[in-house]
DUF3106 domain-containing protein
Amino acid sequence: MSKRFCLLVLLGAAGLVHAAPDRTALPLSVPAGPGAIGSPAAPAAMPWQQLGAEQKRQRRSEYAAWRAMSESERARVRQAAERFAALPLAKQQELRDQFNAQDQAFRDGWRLGPLLGEHFSRLQGMFGYVPENQRDATLAMLRQLTPAQVSQLTLVAQRTPPQQRDTVRTEFLSVAPAQRDAWLARQVGR
């Protein structure tokens, strides 16, 4: 069973819960608590009125992350969730345990969808802690990228020294979509 499949399934399990949409911007890093993605304690069928404030916040956050994904990404997650549901309960629990054993920042990266989630551990240094005034633009830009662009961006993020990350990220945000391939090629070629 691939790690990627496990992560997609657990992301889907969180996205399939029923919650009211959150009207706030989706942060790049969301702290998790009880009922987090993939948690066996996540009571998907519990009525909204019976949830505590933290559980409601968590559900809203999960729902916002789900809604922010493209339909094709949600379809991939649904397919993975169906495959996951067909597994024996012991295997499901094993996969949940593997996911929950990962670093919180790694788990939170999967809320951004399958493409960004797969690469987020390598993007996190540059995009994991974005100033509030850049979050919406950053998320919108990241979601517009092709798989090839995300791969190149991971190289840029990994090669950029910590003291230059803010500058490089801000520069990338200012690049017009039609110029991103050229910008990435220049950065990767350095």
